[in-house]
Amino acid sequence: xxxxxxxxxxxxxxxxxxxxxxxxxxxxxxxxxxxxxxxxxxxxxxxxxxxxxxxxxxxxxxxxxxxxxxxxxxxxxxxxxxxxxxxxxxxxxxxxxxxxxxxxxxxxxxxxxxxxxxxxxxxxxxxxxxxxxxxxxxxxxxxxxxxxxxxxxxxxxxxxxxxxxxxxxxxxxxxxxxxxxxxxxxxxxxxxxxxxxxxxxxxxxxxxxxxxxxxxxxxxxxxxxxxxxxxxxxxxxxxxxxxxxxxxxxxxxxxxxxxxxxxxxxxxxxxxxxxxxxxxxxxxxxxxxxxxxxxxxxxxxxxxxxxxxxxxxxxxxxxxxxxxxxxxxxxxxxxxxxxxxxxxxxxxxxxxxxxxxxxxxxxxxxxxxxxxxxxxxxxxxxxxxxxxxxxxxxxxxxxxxxxxxxxxxxxxxxxxxxx
Amino acid sequence: xxxxxxxxxxxxxxxxxxxxxxxxxxxxxxxxxxxxxxxxxxxxxxxxxxxxxxxxxxxxxxxxxxxxxxxxxxxxxxxxxxxxxxxxxxxxxxxxxxxxxxxxxxxxxxxxxxxxxxxxxxxxxxxxxxxxxxxxxxxxxxxxxxxxxxxxxxxxxxxxxxxxxxxxxxxxxxxxxxxxxxxxxxxxxxxxxxxxxxxxxxxxxxxxxxxxxxxxxxxxxxxxxxxxxxxxxxxxxxxxxxxxxxxxxxxxxxxxxxxxxxxxxxxxxxxxxxxxxxxxxxxxxxxxxxxxxxxxxxxxxxxxxxxxxxxxxxxxxxxxxxxxxxxxxxxxxxxxxxxxxxxxxxxxxxxxxxxxxxxxxxxxxxxxxxxxxxxxxxxxxxxxxxxxxxxxxxxxxxxxxxxxxxxxxxxxxxxxxxxxxxxxxxxxxxxxxxxxxxxxxxxxxxxxxxxxxxxxxxxxxxxxxxxxxxxxxxxxxxxxxxxxxxxxxxxxxxxxxxxxxxxxxxxxxxxxxxxxxxxxxxxxxxxxxxxxxxxxxxxxxxxxxxxxxxxxxxxxxxxxxxxxxxxxxxxxxxxxxxxxxxxxxxxxxxxxxxxxxxxxxxxxxxxxxxxxxxxxxxxxxxxxxxxxxxxxxxxxxxxxxxxxxxxxxxxxxxxxxxxxxxxxxxxxxxxxxxxxxxxxxxxxxxxxxxxxxxxxxxxxxxxxxxxxxxxxxxxxxxxxxxxxxxxxxxxxxxxxxxxxxxxxxxxxxxxxxxxxxxxxxxxxxxxxxxxxxxxxxxxxxxxxxxxxxxxxxxxxxxxxxxxxxxxxxxxxxxxxxxxxxxxxxxxxxxxxxxxxxxxxxxxxxxxxxxxxxxxxxxxxxxxxxxxxxxxxxxxxxxxxxxxxxxxxxxxxxxxxxxxxxxxxxxxxxxxxxxxxxxxxxxxxxxxxxxxxxxxxxxxxxxxxxxxxxxxxxxxxxxxxxxxxxxxxxxxxxxxxxxxxxxxxxxxxxxxxxxxxxxxxxxxxxxxxxxxxxxxxxxxxxxxxxxxxxxxxxxxxxxxxxxxxxxxxxxxxxxxxxxxxxxxxxxxxxxxxxxxxxxxxxxxxxxxxxxxxxxxxxxxxxxxxxxxxxxxxxxxxxxxxxxxxxxxxxxxxxxxxxxxxxxxxxxxxxxxxxxxxxxxxxxxxxxxxxxxxxxxxxxxxxxxxxxxxxxxxxxxxxxxxxxxxxxxxxxxxxxxxxxxxxxxxxxxxxxxxxxxxxxxxxxxxxxxxxxxxxxxxxxxxxxxxxxxxxxxxxxxxxxxxxxxxxxxxxxxxxxxxxxxxxxxxxxxxx
Lengths: 419, 1309
Description:
- The complex is a heterodimer of chains A (419) and B (1309).
- With 419 residues, chain A is α/β, with parallel strands linked by helices.
- Chain A has helices spanning 26-33, 35-49, 69-84, 183-187, 266-283, 302-306, 310-321, 344-347, 353-365, 368-383, 397-415; strands at 4-9, 54-58, 88-92, 112-114, 120-126, 129-136, 160-166, 168-169, 180-181, 193-197, 203-207, 210-213, 229-235, 241-247, 251-259, 288-296, 329-336.
- Chain A folds into 3 domains: 4-247, Purple Acid Phosphatase, chain A, domain 2, CATH 3.60.21.10; 251-336, no CATH class; 344-415, no CATH class.
- Helices cover 31% and strands 24% of the residues of chain A.
- The longest helix of chain A is centred in the C-terminal third of the chain and has 19 residues, at 397-415.
- Chain A is elongated and about 85 Å long.
- Chain B has 1309 residues and is of the alpha/beta class.
- At the A-B interface, helix 3, helix 9, helix 10 and helix 11 of A face helix 6, helix 7, helix 8, helix 30 and helix 31 of B.
């Protein structure tokens, strides 16, 4: 078998919304909004640059079954560029872009194979010689609960056999359990390489054979921090596989914690945050940066930071600081999570109203009736509100605990002037 | 803490006002409106907490009657003893100086400690309030009231909790409100919904893209087809339009062709443009010939003129010289005038120069004077010397003066030294020497000691007075009372309340008994009154001749009266019947007489009878009406109606009887009479019976003369009177029974009240015994005893205070005497009493002071002498220096003078000149130089003018000679020269004319030659032309030329029209259109064109529409293609969700905090039922006289409730205004009482807070305030003397002050 190389990408989510990008900076929003398209362009450029033989795309090309026309045209444009460069492409659709979604009528592109709802195996020819066999299957609809991996038959053993699939391997991936399958099945399937999609964080589940999630091309929310891209896979004559990760993202998400210990002034704090951000930008090779800042720890600035306008004020100043930064920087959120120097447990024993407040807070945090009362009487007033409920995600317990603590601190601020 | 005195320097209308010894307990301050009560309260507040500034809502009370703003408060405190707080104007509420009684300064923190953390606002709310504050408490929102009450136990400030809740609530509501629109979250939700809707709409983009593609294809096809049709139509329309456009040319072509065919004669050869050329030649020949003739005439005339022109050639030739002379005339004339002036000036200047020379001196020739160096350098040298000389002289003078002054100073200093030495020579007196520290100790202690000396007797006096007062007070209680009795008396609040309760019960019991007795007396009196009236009525009844028992039955009387009145009718009938009987009898007797009786007369008689009856009845009715009053009115109407009916019946029966009578009158009449008599008899009998029944004489009925009706009426009236009397008696009897019952009932009440009172008194006696009070002590007296006992205790307390002070003073006196003992001289005097010791001490200290003063004076003189000696030495030195300086200055001056003399010599000036003289000489030399220069200039000018005049005359003479004219005399020279100039101008003009005319003659001759030549040429050309057309003459030439021209015109037209048609129809060959044109006409073509144009327009429009549609579709496709609206909307949605998430968490934080606060407050309040409320309940019960027994703040409801004696609860807001104010007063007292433990009791100042209370509650409130004053100082301001009285009832000894016109006065004043 001659040597062969290909790119393995998945979860392009072209045209998907950027979670948590405020409309406060429309020009930045525009920039970040384009990032999935630009990351896709990077993929095509990488394929051409590395002169690979073909490109595998393992589902979720678009975001949402109602894929936008623009995204579809953009996708086709990329495929056409590959085709013009003599690079083949193999595509399956996943739960985000199942076959029953709206599809624009587009002309067939030479060298592009989009797998249908039935399992199929195609042979890949390079310079007139068969080098690999790609078996693939697309999601016919959004919710596929059956095991699609089992339906794929590996190609002839003399070829490099690839299983191209959008699927959830194992049960605890943090993703919807579509097309579920087990790693053991995949290992025993007879494939040389499982090119998977669905899980957005890249991981190599197995090396014998390779079972690979390349992750998505571009992080789109604070839940998708760090570098994103595709795998460049090189297979030699002896079917030895070599994986290289190519970062293709154009903007990167980070969560940055800044301790306030030892910081005496807000200016110093602002500088400290700035240093952290600048360091990140450098480390990310000058990519655009999106971040959430959390101010943590105890320090003399606590009192200043607890003022209701302090957080928003600092956030506004930071945004202003990076307004015209190159590369772009957007501080999406700034959370004041630092703690007062006062010992709350000790304060709770003083027998006055504040002590009672802290005691009630403590009780709630321990769960039980008190917490139920809090949820019923307070939280649900908004979270169960008929209009708000459909937009708000349920508060996870740790978030509620955090809010409870912050509420206690708020009472502390309001009832005691000298904390 | 209590206020012992206030001293107001200037504050509102107070100025220089002082009050001392405010009582520790209750102080009443009485003053009219605007007398200054609020100001006094404001003063206390201002001194304690600072003056109100511009931002404060409190009044600032600037001094209106002078004095400095502010004053002092003297306070007695548990914490720091006596102290004074003084406040004067200054920043931040004024400068505050706090001093302990010993003079030790204290700080603001000490005052705060004394005030126990009570701030200005709390003080105003609770310790120094007026009615408005009391009422404003009412207006505080209930939640806040509650928080104020709980505030004390919540461990937060008075306001922190409500503010915190409000803040949280505000923040949360700013974020989200169910059903709201404006809060941020609500807005976000709206935006989200709108975005989602838009997104759904945008997701249809794909379908639209495909539809648009199809539409575009269809449109493209249609556009292509339309385009072909339009093209064909346009071509046809275009061709028709061009044929129509060519139609005129076509007509022209046809006409031209026809005319050409008809043209004659046919001339084949003719010179080109022959006719035009012939005309041109002939015209030009004629012109040339005319002009030749004209030129010949002109030449002859010019030659004649030339011959007549003559001029002077010599004069013209010398024109230049003449002109030069004319130009020089002015200069010559000027020179002649200037010459004498120049000569005169030269001689004057020479004279002036002589004078200047003389000024310098006889030895100064012009040369010597002009030889002086007048340069600036020379002048500067002189100036230099002058300055140097002046300076040297000045220096010398100055030093001389300084020398003089130094000599004077030196001698003065010596004199002063001598005087001081003399003064010091006086003998030093010996001085007292006490060790400095001891002296200081003596001085420091003296003031205190003096104070002791002054105050101790006063204090002892005070003590005696107080002791006496205490004895008096105790004796007032009971002669047997001693201090021990007082100590053993339980005057606790509980005991007091018991006495108060007993007093209240005694008062209430007595009151109840008194009220019951009063009621009993009233009931007895009522009964008596009823008996009297009953007796009178019975008497009246009996007076009417009836025994009450007999005819007392009013019912029977009424019955009889009714029957009597019924009889009245029958009596009337009786009367009536009698009259009728009379009438019948009269007729009967008439009938027996032979008189005709006609029906008519009968009728007349009847009418008379009717009238009689009517009158009678009227009389009866009237009588009845008068007798029976209103009831008779109705009866009268009834009777009237009955009469009218009866009358009608009677008339009919009479008519009948008349007829009957006429038939057999006598018989009928007799029968009628009989019948009537029979009826009368029966009636009479019945009436008689009835009369008997009524107790009348029955015979009355048979006496026709009796007015029976009137008799009956009278009787009925009598009966009515009797009835009324009987009814009155009956009613009174019933009333009497009731009154008797009442009396018995009241009697029982009296007995019960009496018994209750006795029981109460028995209980009280028992209690009095337990209190060791005499049994006959009333609760009221006991209260007074308690009051007195309190007073006695307070006096006892004061005695102890004074004792302490006396002891302190004695200790301090002893200690100071020990100090004094250290001074031997004073030690001897220690045997004296304090006064004596003080006098000695003062004398001793005075001596020490005097001795010290002398010592200091000598030291001062010694210092002065040293200074004076130093000064004398310095002055001498100074004098010597000045002397040397004078010598130096003289030497320098001398040298300067020598150098000046040498310089004068060197420049050739007179020795002995001063620098000023030298400068003057140089000035004159300069003047001389100017004069000599001017003189020389003028002399030279005179010579030059003479030369100029000579030269001019010479030139004139030679010109005249050359022109051959006589040289004129000098006088006429200029005149002749001017005349010569004029002559020359005339001859110049004549010569120019001659030359010009000669040239013109030559030109004219040339013209004549040219014309002759031209005419020859033209005649030759004309002949050639005629030859060319083979014509013999012009006429023939013209005829042939005309025919040829016409042919050419027609041919050209044909050519032109052919071209026109070709161009218009766009064809090469005319034959392509000629058949078509020949086969149609203009109208047909026009119609066709219109039709075709309409078709083109329509097709064109359709094509345009399709193109537009296609454009739109294309645009839509492009926009769909490039539009990324879905992505953008998704992004917007995500962004909004993110914002929502953030805001929701923020909201949750605030709401959770609010929840925590609420739950915590609830729990805390429940666990700590506030003492404030308990205490408030006690006071409220006291004030309302037990009407309300409890105040209650239900936890978590944010309300205050009160519970009455029956256990019913009521909301504070449902109370009347007075009761609400009482509640708020009670809450204040509750707060104050609850605070007692926390800090030292602060005085309470109240301004007329009882005005809305009813007298009873005002009394109870006053009592509560008096009770309050046992534990703390109370100052109560009022404008109502009545209020003072109320207080005095409970505290007869309360101090009373008057406040009037800015003065605070004790009542004694």
